[in-house]
Amino acid sequence: MVSINTPELYINESGAIHKVADYTELAIGNRNKRAYIIWSKTPRKLVKEIFATEFSDKGISYEEQLFEGFPTDAKARSFAEKAKEAGAEVIIGVGGGRVMDVTKATGTYAELPVITVPTVAATCAAWAAVSIIYTDKGDFDKFLFNPKSAKYIVADTDIIAKAPIRFLKSGIVDTFAKWYEPFYRETPSFTMQISTYTARLAFDFLRTKGPQVVEQVEKGIVNEDTVSVIDSIIYLAGNIGSFVGKEAFSGLAHPFYHSSRRYGSTYIRLHGEIVAFALVMQGVYEKRSDEEIAERIQILQKFDNAYTLEELGLSEEEQLITIAERMQSEFEGKQITKEETEKLVAAMKETDRLVKESRAK
């Protein structure tokens, strides 16, 4: 059996921020016109006046929650209680991936529909039904598989394009993982084939058009290709994860990312920046050809996302061992073995060496 968990609407256009009130009204229907908005400081400053005016025009009142730190289970449950106390009929999240994660979890605990308004395209979090839950200190805690994805996604392409370019580069690289990371079976199911071809579409487009779009965005140019890059990160990558079946889709890159968050030294790096390192590491681990691994590094370098271990904040042997052990026990569900730990650590070190070697050429 296959279940598909997707949003009802994905709105991606210039000025879409001015339609959030419209879609909020649509989501609420004939119920109390009350919403609960979760946003972080910068997005709030960016859109608060627009929301204040346009929500008022629709007769929609709202309570707001400033989000800081990490999306923890305690925060999501607390926000859910506050939303219910406020009589909210919809939860709205405005911001980056952490805001998206806590907003979706809040919607699950409050049993209310969610509208996500991404202000950066660094991950597919605005779409994905899963919430990544962290501890207060920023370590990975658990996956919360929400029963529903966001009801509506409102992506204002102008706002996203004006965000620091580092986020877009990170999002492009994180989307590459949808192609590099999965284990492809010799006889894949039809569902797996859909995901595979979607991943290939996103990968090919971002690899060929991504560098040019990044260059244009840095100059303030937003065009059709910019929108397609944003769509690849949010829509295509998100849709790949919307299929829930018997086949596993994960590889090493995301388990490496989640395991590395044990160390606060890695917080200098975005999600996609750490995933980028692990995509090369996965190629090394899988004993891919030298040519294929070199090509991966070269592609990542075009987006300034080929990092060394030290640049990730991982410079100690003990850190690498802990990450390798955690990848086995927490993300592969296996018993930790010395042989596998040594193999994973060796792949990390070899990746570090190859990145340095590539830079020196």
Structure notes:
The protein has 14 helices and 10 strands. It has 361 residues and is an alpha/beta fold. Helix 7 runs antiparallel to helix 8 and helix 9 (253-260) crosses helix 10. The longest helix is centred in the middle third of the chain and has 29 residues, at 190-218. The N and C termini lie far apart (50 Å). The mean pLDDT is 94.
The overall strand count is: 10
What is the rounded distance between the termini?
Answer: 50 Å
Biggest beta-sheet profile: 6 strands, parallel
Shape: globular
Question: How would you briefly describe this protein structure?
Answer:
With 361 residues, the chain is α/β, with parallel strands linked by helices. It has helices spanning 20-28, 41-57, 73-85, 97-110, 157-162, 165-180, 190-218, 224-240, 253-260, 271-285, 290-301, 309-312, 317-331, 338-360, and strands at 3-4, 9-13, 34-39, 61-66, 90-95, 114-118, 130-134, 140-145, 152-156, 243-244.
